[in-house]
Amino acid sequence: MAGGTLAAMTPEQLRELIAAGETLDVEFKGEAKKALSDSDLVDAVVCLSNRPGAEPGWLLVGVEDDGRITGARPRHEAGSTDIRRLQAVIANLTRPSVSCRADVFALDDQQVIAIEVSPSRHPVGRSNGLYVRRAVGSDGRPACVPYPFHEMQSHEADRGQLDYSTAVVPEARWADLDPLEFERYRRNIRESRGQGDRSLLDLTDIELAKALGAVVANGEVSAVRVLGLLLFGREEALRSLIPTHEVAFQQLAGQKVEANDFLRLPLVRTMEELLGRWRARNREQELMVGALRVGVPDYPELALREAVANALIHRDYTRLGAVHVQWHEDRIASPVPAVFPRACASTTCS
């Protein structure tokens, strides 16, 4: 019933919703012990607004956590609840304003206030600056938990509404970018067999960085973006200014770890370092094809390039956690943390 609309809600459907218990989409607020304040009610609406999914959620006032219907207390004069005033309070105390649909139902001689809350495409907070979101708590039950800023950024990025790579890093300076990395970038274009944009080769370092959107510049560089550090940053600058960027190369033989290298390097150099480690371990067998000997590697290099590129490009740089490229005895995989897309260098993922 969580997918229904308030206009179509019936008392029978409301009973079904209550019988199913609290979920990420449904929250109960009982008033048996004390009245629910406007502040606590708005907090619950904010929480339900900041939840995954696309279906409407429900805040049910007058229902205890265990599903008992104890009734909602009148919120306004003359012993009644004015739904329009309730909706106005929610809209006035949320940023951006949340427009909810609500109604009062009579169940078991008790009143239940049902408030329909749709998930928001943007983070929603209280007018006083409080941000919470709906999630599974430490006890395995749905709960309202803090909504820190980096998770809001991740929320926006997941929906294509925020490109974190364009964010300016206030502490970063042009000197934090390494001229050698600009040359490495140009060399990759020259060696790309026509796939790179050769018009970039004749640009100066500043012109190249500006053309890529890596810096803010008008003659001189006034700001460095996250992209600039990821592509051209010195190792010490990456460690201090983008601590979320880390790549691990691990070689496993059963339960034994034979290599465990953690890299905090610019992306193009990171790709080269990983390829070097890959090539040193990728065995090749020769097959006779007619009169020719043809070398067949255990794993195609193109597959690694694609897998690692996906892992590095699509990962969430607002969150801690290294991208892991793992070499096993019988397979190669490049898993990434659960919040990132999976990427494999072979047809088998670990």
Write a concise keyword list for the protein shown above:
single chain; 350 residues; alpha+beta; Methyltransferase, Cobalt-precorrin-4 Transmethylase, Domain 2; four-stranded mixed beta sheet; 10 helices; elongated; disordered N terminus; disordered C terminus
Total individual domains: 3
The CATH architecture of the largest domain would be 2-Layer Sandwich
Please write the string of helix (H) and strand (E) elements: HEHEHEEEEEEHHHEEHHEEHEEHEE
Q: What's the name of the CATH homologous superfamily of the largest domain?
A: Schlafen, AAA domain
What form results from the Cα inertia axes?
A: elongated
What value does the average pLDDT take?
85
Quantity of strands, as a count? 16
Q: Biggest β-sheet, characterized?
A: 4 strands, mixed
Strand content: 15-25%
CATH class of the largest domain: Alpha Beta
Specify the structural class.
Answer: alpha+beta
Distance between the termini: 38 Å
Strand order of the largest sheet: 1-2-5-4
